[in-house]
Amino acid sequence: MKKQIKSMSIAIGKILKAVQIGFVLTLLLIQETFAQDGNAGINEATTKVKSYFETGTDLMYAIGAVVGLVGAIKVYQKWNSGDHDTGKVASSWFGSCVFLVIVATVLQSFFGI
Question: Which residue ranges run through the membrane (predicted)?
Answer without folding.
Answer: 59-77, 89-111
